[in-house]
Write a structure and sequence with these properties.
alpha/beta; globular; STAS domain-containing protein; STAS_dom; STAS_dom_sf
Length: 104
């Protein structure tokens, strides 16, 4: 299984979420196999409702295409948002799932 990695640095918000969706779309379109898509979120500084919407859209797309999505180096700010919105299990599996955190 091939791993594709997309790195997110800075805020994921109204101004940047469309760019992430386009980048992920282009990345997935380049590969015909069923890869593992890793979003490296170690540089994420903010995630608002549009950012969360983008992550949910990416999960829907990868699921539909048979691609495994992993969120690497999730900052605590994202984990709190996922817990508050009830989307943690959908995006990362079980709470504290297999994806890596960047902060202890």
């Amino acid at each position: 299984m091939e791993q594709l990695t997309v790195t997110v640095d800075g805020p994921l918000d109204f101004d940047t979420s469309e760019e992430l969706l386009e980048t992920v779309g282009k990345t997935l379109a380049e590969f015909r196999e069923e890869p593992l898509l890793a979003l490296d979120l170690g540089g994420l500084t903010l995630c608002d409702s549009m950012g969360l919407s983008a992550l949910l859209a990416i999960r829907r797309r990868t699921t539909a295409e048979g691609v495994r999505l992993v969120l690497l180096r999730r900052p605590r700010l994202l984990d709190r948002l996922l817990e508050l919105t009830g989307t943690a299990e959908y995006l990362i599996g079980t709470p504290g799932g297999e994806d890596e955190h960047s902060e202890p």
